[in-house]
Amino acid sequence: MEAQSNSQARIRAFVERAERLQDDMALLKEALKALFAEAKGEGFDTKALKRVIALRKKDQQKLAEEVAMLRMYAAAMDMEDVFA
Predict the structure, then answer these.
(1) Cα(5)–Cα(23) distance, integer angstroms
(2) CA distance readout (Å), 62 to 9, 28, 47, 49, 55
(3) What does the alpha-carbon distance between residue 26 and residue 23 come to, in Å, rounded to a whole number?
(4) Within 10 A of 23 (CB to CB), how many other CB atoms are there?
(5) What does the alpha-carbon distance between residue 18 and residue 24 come to, in Å, rounded to a whole number?
(6) Distance in angstroms (rounded) separating the CA atoms of residues 71 and 62
(7) Cβ(46)–Cβ(40) under 8 Å?
(8) In 10 A of CB 63, how many CB atoms?
(9) Contact 43/31 with Cβ under 8 angstroms?
(10) Could you list the pLDDT tens digit for every one of the 84 residues in the chain?
């Protein structure tokens, strides 16, 4: 019986922790939404901000390779000025 009681307690603990984390995530999502609304209110392009954030998360070597490839393809299409 004690093993079952211990298992039940562990299950309850996991469920309650997961619920708290979900609540925390909801609060963080709201805070992020408010941050982007503030940035937009000050005239910033939130799409560009989100793109910069995504780029900063990328591995720098992979990002450099991606940019080099984009430059090469843009040059092939006579669009070098895109990166000027």
Answers:
(1) 27
(2) 46, 29, 22, 20, 10
(3) 5
(4) 10
(5) 10
(6) 14
(7) yes
(8) 13
(9) no
(10) 777 888 999 999 999 999 999 999 999 999 999 999 999 999 999 999 999 999 999 999 999 999 999 999 999 999 988 887
Whole-prediction pTM: 0.71
First-residue to last-residue Cα distance in the chain: 72
Q: Which residue has the tokens 């019986």?
A: 1
Angle at alpha carbon of residue 11, lines to 6 and 15, rounded to 5°: 150
Q: What are residue 41's phi and psi, to 5 degrees?
A: -60, -25
